Amino acid sequence: MKIATYNVNGVNGRLNVLLRWLEEAAPDIVCLQELKAPQDNFPLKAINDAGYNAIWHGQKQWNGVAILARNMEIEEITRTLPGDEEDIQSRYIEALINGIVIACIYLPNGNPAPGPKFEYKLKWFDRLADRAETLLNLKVPVILIGDYNVMPTELDVYKPEKWVKDALFRPEVRKAFSTIVSQGWTDAIRTLYPNETIYTFWDYFRNAYERNAGLRIDHFLLSPQIAAILRSGGVDRHVRGWEKTSDHAPVWIEIDKK
Fold first, then answer.
1. How far apart are CA 258 and CA 253, in angstroms?
2. pLDDT classification of 68: cutoffs 50, 70, 90
3. What domain range includes position 158?
4. pLDDT band (50, 70, 90) for residue 258
5. Active site positions, annotated
C-alpha cells in the first residue's frame, strides 16, 4: 500500500498538477495540506473522476486539509485537533481507512518568532502531542502525516546556520517534534535514509529548487504496528519542477498490505 502526503499550496489553482501526479504515482491514500479553499469549493468531482474518495476540512483563503483514498472507504473520526475549542483553523483531519488511523496534519508556520503566531504553534504542538499519545495508547495502526513545518535536524535544512532564529528550526520547535517521536513513533523517511540529504520543500525565490536549497518539513510518523511493515519511501522531487507547481513535493511511503 502506497501512502503519500502533498502540500498542494492551493488545491484549485494547482488542480492539474495534483491530478497529473495522482495518475502518475497512483497512491492508495493521500493527505493534502494548504487547500486554500472554503469547504464548498473543494474539487470533489475532479478527485472522484480520478478514482478517489475524499473527506476535507476547508477554510477560506488559508489552511485546509484533506484525505483521499482510492477504492477504499474513508470513515471520518474528527476534523479538529482536541484541546482548544476556540481554534477554528482547519489544520487537522483524522480518519479510519482499511484499519489504519490516518491523521492529516498542517502544523502552523509560527513566524515571526517570538510572537503570538509562534506561541500558537507551540500550543498546537502540545495538543498534537496529547493526541498522538492517545492514539499510540490504542495499540492500533496509526500514521501521523503531513506538513509539520519543522526541520528536525541540521541534516534536514540547507545551510542550517541561516535558520536558527526561524520558527521552523528554533530549538523549541525541534524539541516539540522530538518529544512526539520519543513517545514511540518512527520518522519513516529518516529511518529509511538515516544519513542522506532529503528535502521536501524548495522556496520559489532565489532558484532554491535548482540549487537544491531545500527543507525537509513533510513527515510521516508511524506507530509500531506500521513501522514493522514499512517497506520503502521517497520524495517525488521532479514534481516540484513542473509548471505552476507547489513549493512542496509529494512524499510517500509503502507498507506491506494488510
1. 15
2. very high
3. 2-255
4. low
5. 106, 147
